[in-house]
Design a protein that fits this description.
Helices cover 39% and strands 22% of the residues. The protein is of the alpha/beta class and 418 residues long.
């Protein structure tokens, strides 16, 4: 994403956010934790009080210093409550209470994964979005549209105008962009590798294929050439995936600069943190006794994903991920790896990962509902070490069998923190 596009996005969003006037105040050392509470039917639970909650950091109970209710418009007094710092502040934390967050309307950032999502999935996701925007046209909900491939692009800055949003996602320019997206190239590469392995196993080297195959001589040399080709393809995928995660990280960083709560809804077919694994999997299935494909690709992007999670969790950016394929029958370990990344993004930030459901409209609506009715807890950690380490958070609701969802933790300030 160019700096100009980034600035346009920020300016548009900031101008809209600046109209809110309800302030949540907290001590600068406090940790904010948005919490979604649901019953057995998945409905949001209203009417809870501060005394209903317990919050733990690394298994140590923390004192709740502030409490707020967001949403449930029938309860205006609760919604407009102010989070204040604790009555007594230690000398080391005697810094003045600052305005750290404004209780403002949430912005939903719809992010299309161009690198890993098929055009078929995109069409399905777009149809559901058209219906969503039509339903949301009188609600004042604010949306922004982002496309994320090897780089980040702002498709539509934050707006409440549903007609503008629908026009943008249905525009020929946007549709043609998805028609040429990297996912199509990846599909072509998968087909190429499949064809090459099929040709290998149907020719003179068929004796090397299958469970009893033994690659020798010229057949072994050809497999080495295939390995070199797959290494090059894997390196390209790794470079592209690094750009994808860097774009997601930058999106989170820019959203953190804007006052108000934000939700990212990532629409994707899923992806692996070991780019190229798909190619080696195809080859290994054909020649299971060849040593050239029995290894994990050297490219591991877990550290890049962790950096995205750190920034989103630190800034209370909730991420909801939607598997745009809907219902599918792939039960392979590779398919699990692809969806596990989407699950990590959601669970670590207090969001949800939706999969195995063809009703994408309902999935969009579920993500919106979580961002409208929730609680906010604030506490000052009893662990004062500035060590940059991860602190795990657990939130409980006393005496009630409710579902409780919040970000799983945060990284303390310090030398190793981002």
């Amino acid at each position: 994403m160019s700096m100009r596009l980034c600035e346009v996005f920020l300016i548009a969003a900031c101008a809209a956010f600046g109209q809110a006037d309800t302030t949540i105040r907290l001590d600068v050392r406090q940790v904010l934790v948005p919490v979604v509470v649901t019953d057995h039917g998945g409905h949001h639970v209203a009417g809870l009080k501060e005394s209903d909650f317990e919050i733990y950091e690394d298994n140590v109970r923390q004192r709740i210093a502030g409490f707020s209710v967001e949403g449930w418009t029938s309860s205006a007094s609760a919604r407009d409550s102010v989070i204040q710092p604790p009555d007594s502040v230690s000398p080391a934390g005697a810094t003045a209470t600052a305005t750290a967050m404004r209780a403002q309307q949430r912005t939903y950032v719809i992010c299309f994964d161009m690198l890993h999502t098929s055009f078929t999935s995109f069409v399905r996701a777009r149809e559901a979005l058209n219906k969503l925007f039509d339903q949301e046209k009188d609600t004042g909900s604010r949306f922004a549209l982002i496309s994320l491939g090897r780089e980040l692009q702002v498709v539509q800055t934050a707006t409440t105008d549903s007609a503008t949003l629908s026009a943008k996602i249905n525009s020929p320019a946007f549709t043609s962009t998805f028609g040429n997206m990297e996912a199509a190239d990846f599909g072509g590469q998968i087909a190429d590798v499949t064809r090459r392995m099929a040709a290998f196993c149907s020719g003179p080297c068929s004796i090397a294929c299958g469970p009893g195959g033994r690659p020798r001589g010229a057949c072994d040399a050809e497999l080495q050439q295939i390995r070199v080709n797959l290494d090059a393809r894997g390196q390209q995928r790794s470079t592209w995936s690094e750009g994808f995660l860097a774009g997601f990280e930058r999106l989170s960083e820019e959203l953190a600069k804007i006052d108000g709560p934000h939700t990212i809804i990532l629409v994707s077919d899923g992806f692996t943190l070991r780019p190229g694994a798909e190619f080696y999997s195809i080859a290994s299935a054909c020649v299971p006794n060849s040593p050239y494909f029995h290894f994990v690709p050297p490219y591991d992007l877990q550290l890049e994903l962790d950096q995205c999670l750190k920034i989103a969790a630190r800034n209370n950016i909730m991420v909801y991920t939607i598997d745009a394929r809907g219902v599918y029958n792939d039960t392979s370990s590779l398919a699990f790896q692809n969806t596990s990344v989407l699950s990590q993004l959601a669970s670590a930030t207090g969001g949800l990962f939706f999969e195995g459901n063809n009703d994408l409209l309902q999935l969009y609506r579920n993500a919106l509902a979580d961002g409208r009715d929730y609680y906010v807890l604030a506490y000052t950690s009893t662990n004062t070490a500035a060590d940059g380490k991860y602190r795990r958070i657990v939130v409980k609701v006393n005496g009630k069998a409710h579902g409780v969802r919040a970000k799983q933790g945060y990284w303390a300030e310090g030398a190793t923190s981002p």
